[in-house]
Design goal:
Organism: Virgibacillus halodenitrificans (Bacillus halodenitrificans)
Helix content: 10-25%
CATH class: Alpha Beta
Radius of gyration: 16 Å
Strand content: 15-25%
CATH topology: Rossmann fold
Protein name: SAM-dependent methyltransferase
CATH architecture: 3-Layer(aba) Sandwich
InterPro entries: SAM-dependent_MTases_sf (IPR029063)
Number of strands: 7
GO molecular function, one term: methyltransferase activity
Order of helices and strands: EEHEHEHHEEE
Number of helices: 4
Strand order of the largest sheet: 2-1-3-4-7-5-6
Pfam family, one: Methyltransf_23
Number of domains: 1
C-alpha cells in the first residue's frame, strides 16, 4: 500500500523524537509547511487524518503561519485536525518568557533563536480561523495568568511539552507549559 492510500497521522518537525509511535515523523527538509509542492509529492488532497506540530508554528511569522495552515487544510480530510502546541505568551514567568521570546535568549544555536512570534490563545485561534479552521483550546493561560485545560487524549496526538505529559509540569507548579489547540477542518 502506498503512503497516499493510508489513513495518515503525521508529525511535522519531530526533531528526532517519537512521542507518537506509528505516526509518520517528518522534518522541514522532507516536508516544508510553506511549500505545498512537497506535500503534493507525498499526499493526496483530503488524505491526512491528523497533523501534529509541537513547537513548530512559532518558527514562522503570523502570516507564514496562516499560509502553512492553509497548506495543511488542503491535505487534511474533512473533520481532520492539526494538534498544535506553541510557547504561551500569557504564561507569567519571566525566565520562561525570556527563553521563548522572539530571537530566543541569545546564542544563535539555541532552539528559540529563530522564534518569530509568541502566540497567546487569541492570536493562535485567530491565525487558524483565518486559514479556515474551527478551533478548540486544550491547554492555555489567559491574560490574568490563569491556567485552563480542556479534556484531551494522548491517543489523538501526544504533546510532550504539556501539563499532561511533561514531568516538569507535574504537581502544583507548571514550569514549561505549551499553548495547545486543535484546529479542525470542517
Amino acid at each position: 500500500m502506498s503512503l497516499k492510500e493510508k489513513d495518515i497521522k503525521l508529525v511535522i518537525g519531530s526533531g528526532g523524537y517519537n512521542n507518537n509511535p506509528g505516526w509518520l515523523h517528518t522534518q522541514e527538509n522532507e516536508l516544508s509547511l510553506l511549500d505545498e509542492k512537497t506535500w503534493g509529492e507525498m499526499f493526496d488532497n483530503n488524505s491526512i487524518a491528523v497533523i501534529l506540530a509541537e513547537h513548530v508554528w512559532e518558527h514562522l511569522t503570523y502570516y507564514e503561519g496562516v499560509q502553512a495552515a492553509k497548506v495543511c487544510h488542503k491535505f487534511l480530510k474533512p473533520g481532520g485536525y492539526i494538534r498544535c502546541a506553541v510557547p504561551d505568551a500569557f504564561f507569567q514567568d519571566e525566565e520562561y518568557q525570556n527563553t521563548v521570546k522572539i530571537g530566543g535568549p541569545g546564542p544563535k544555536d539555541h532552539p528559540a533563536a529563530d522564534h518569530k512570534i509568541v502566540y497567546n490563545y487569541k492570536s493562535i485561534t485567530d491565525m487558524f480561523h483565518t486559514a479556515g479552521f474551527e478551533t478548540q483550546l486544550l491547554e492555555y493561560f489567559d491574560e490574568k495568568g490563569a491556567y485552563h485545560q480542556n479534556f484531551w487524549d494522548g491517543k489523538d496526538g501526544v504533546i510532550f511539552r504539556s501539563k499532561k505529559y511533561d514531568p516538569r509540569n507535574q504537581g502544583q507548579q507548571i514550569i514549561f507549559p505549551s499553548l495547545i489547540v486543535d484546529a479542525v477542518k470542517i
